[in-house]
Give the backbone structure.
Amino acid sequence: MKDILKGKAYVIGDSIDTDQIIPAAHLVFSMTIPEERKQYGRYALSGLPDGTQGLPKGDIPFTAADEFESEFTIIIAGSNFGCGSSREHAPFALMVAGAEAVVAESYARIFYRNAVDGGFLIPFESRDRLIDVIRTGDLLMIDSKSGLLTNETTGKDYLLNPLGDIADILRAGNVFEYARQAGLMP
Amino acid sequence: MEQTITQKILAAHAGKDRVAPGENIWVDVDILMTHDVCGPPTIDIFKREFGQDAQVWDKDKLVILPDHYIFTEDPHAMRNIEILRAFAAEHDLPHYFDVGTSRYKGVCHVALAEEGFNRPGNVLFGTDSHTCTSGAFGLFSTGVGNTDAALIMGTGKIWVKVPQTMRFVFEGALPPYLMAKDIILSVIGDIGLDGGTYRALEFDGQAVFDLSMEERMTLTNMAIEAGAKNGIIAADDKTFEYVRSRTDAAFEPVYSDPDAAYYFEKIYDVSTMEPVIAKPHRPDNRASVTEVAGTKLDRAYIGSCTGGKYGDFLAAARVLEGNEVRVDTFVVPASTEVSKQLRENTLNGKTIWQVFLDAGCKMGHASCGACLGGPVDTFGRTHGTEVVISTTNRNFPGRMGSKEASVYLASPLTVAASALHGVITDPREVMV
Ligand code: SF4
């Protein structure tokens, strides 16, 4: 787990479900064969309807057409991020696109767990409704130790909730490393 | 003392007398289920972490049910089935239900019930969010991702945070124009898409125990639509009868203590409830059917783990019999067993299958079908701005294929009534 994350914000709304994060038609791609794996980056967040892609304007695709990686590495979302299906392809797709963290007001539990147990990205919880005060493209810095998010574009600071129980798994790398360290698997 | 059924099952599987909500525990898993979308990546992770030649922890506890992308020409989707087939052969798995054979079942959650894998008191995990369906049989069941499934596949164990429980008690007699779908859409409308996040939803009360096992599964199926970890209904004689007719496996039913502590409790009188619908694009966007009656439709869809069981089709067929649909109506049985029942059982002298055909419905093969959109050639999938009324469980943008489409969720009775009129219609208008 990185101590300092820096990158551009991509802002989206409430209850963004896993079909919007990675539409079901694309789940047929292999998650391991490199040529296919990169398709997850291409289609990450491609299920967002027009008008909701990158707030406040809503007309900025997360991954530009014909690209496999996004210029945005920190996703700012409202409440209940990642609701819907249990597909681990969702946090995986965001990671393949280059995202390192999501900052949401709250999460659907399976997405949250998948993000952590698979070691795909860090799911931070915000205390404020950041989607109203951060704009897509703002330059952000997150100190994962102190839980401070700084919007370098506006100069404003926001406090994030402590990572709590999941910090140990994130630090270990994924749930397997965590289980090994705890002596639960060889 | 003072524990809910969910706590007691988890405690027993963690080797403890009691567990408290919020506690993180490691539990022993009785059944792990996976399917064609999440099975192949789970197998990849299992081999990466445990070795190419690693053995699954217990062959008898692993159930693989391909169901999502079956009747498609998509080569990648076909490859997923080949991966499952090869893995099942390599490990000599007894519970692999292969496509194109007489063992093929269809939608995993319905098949788990039919094949006797839902056993009271058990702990069941699956790589599918609607794994909570199995809770209708008085067991703890929840959905996980590929990583967690791979960990279970190798060790038989997984960590769980013990949930608080929300209890919903249903009293009264269910009127004939209402179904379990109306009840659960009402609950989701009341508590919201994240109203049950991290919690167990326990369904209780005489009206629940009056329901068939299939209808109970419709309730627990949609616990995830309120964000819940699991949905659960205590086992009763109907449960035992169903389970014993499907398996010889031993099981130990568990019940909530009378003084169990609940995070939330709410009592409903089902006799006064109305047919309800979830408007686009959220399952909690509830309206009564009368509020949206008259909305013009392009399509109706009857299918899925929540709305494609035998009883769902029987209810719809009763409305459609002797009439003709005014919009494209797709009928997709959840399982091959349901499909068989539709072809064998009759309604006023005609098979139920024939009732649908005569009403002008398009009949599909047992599978998930267009419930989750899927590959472009999927039967019933949306491709444009269709307005759909569906018995499925999700209507997020793009869920049935096209993100421009609008999907309304409703009971099979409401969907059938609406198919007949081509506009959203209260089932009371067409039921005599
Ligand atoms: S029928 Fe729909 S909800 Fe049920 S398992 Fe299949 S895709 Fe998921």
Notes: The first helix of chain A runs from residue 18 to 21.
